Amino acid sequence: MSPPGRPKGESQSAQREGNSVNERVSLPARDPVLRVMPVPADANIHGDVFGGWIMSQVDIAGGVLASRRANGRVATVAVTSFLFKHPVFVGDLCSFYARVLKTGTTSITVEVEVYAERNRLEADVVKVTEATLVYVATGDDRRPRPLPKLPSN
Ligand SMILES: CC(C)(COP(=O)(O)OP(=O)(O)OC[C@H]1O[C@@H](n2cnc3c(N)ncnc32)[C@H](O)[C@@H]1OP(=O)(O)O)[C@@H](O)C(=O)NCCC(=O)NCCS
User: How many domains does the chain have?
Assistant: First the structure.
């Protein structure tokens, strides 16, 4: 039987051959900022997870890193790129990897990459999404505030 959300009739061998559903890769050798598994409420009637669900998780993951760098509150000011490379299905274990690409006076540009583990026993890993977001460090007045200096070693 197919796992929940897997397209019916699609053989595992077809998936292994790198078609549009699976292009197997390895998980990055660093800790993800966030790991979460979509449930049926996050998907359409065909079991494909809504893009909006993934966008929301990406924003949360990027925000974790940005607020760490800002040492406090941040607001998302822009999503400069967002690519859904492969679909996400209910039951996929989604890992969100984030890194700071650059910082300005008040802004932090973060790249978020999302990987889905589909078959935990067979360890199928697919890179499903990549995005770049810009966050702004804000104060209690919700206005931009300069980023704190990084401690020198
Ligand atoms: C985020 C916010 C406080 C920024 O205020 P602002 O007056 O527009 O800020 P500024 O024009 O001074 O820009 C602040 C920084 O953001 C950057 N920025 C602004 N617009 C940007 C854009 N479209 N793309 C990339 N960076 C942008 C600026 O370059 C600046 O960076 P720097 O200080 O490192 O040079 C304000 O726009 C806001 O509250 N937006 C709503 C945020 C929000 O609610 N997000 C959740 C989604 S609803």
Answer: 1
98 assigned to some structural domain:
yes
Mutate which of 100, 136, 140, 147 for ligand 1 pocket (most atoms within 8 A of beta carbon) = 136
Nearest residue to 73 (alpha-carbon basis) of 119, 106, 117: 106
The one-digit pLDDT tens for each residue of the chain (153 residues) are: 344 444 444 434 334 433 345 567 889 999 999 999 999 999 999 889 999 999 999 999 999 999 999 999 999 999 999 999 999 999 999 999 999 999 999 999 999 999 999 876 677 899 999 999 999 999 999 999 999 999 886
Would the pTM count as exceeding 0.85?
yes
What is the CA(133)–ligand 1 centre distance, in A?
Answer: 11
* Inter-CA distances, 117 with 27, 48, 64, 129, Å: 9, 15, 22, 13
For the domain that residue 75 is a member of, what is the CATH number?
3.10.129.10
Query: Domain containing 62: what range?
Result: 28-137
Nearest CA to ligand 1 atom 34: 104
Contact present, 36 and 56 (Cβ < 8 Å):
no
